[in-house]
Request: fold
Amino acid sequence: FLVSYRKGGAILRMLKTILGDKGFKTGILHFLREFQFSSATSNDLWNSFEQSRNTTEVSSKACTSVIMLKF
Reply:
């Protein structure tokens, strides 16, 4: 049980490193606002991060959804 939380935290920290503080925050806020009254899938979360990557100045050219497919 504890391993799941550690792995989830590690993935979020990696995303924050890739997207930067602003891109990560933008992605999380977009996701929470978009799905606050409905259910969401993991793809919805990755799409929110991808959208934030496209709207903020992120130096990484890596696609968030492609990176997360490796996990």
In short: The chain has a mean pLDDT of 79. The helical segments are 2-34, 42-55, 64-69.
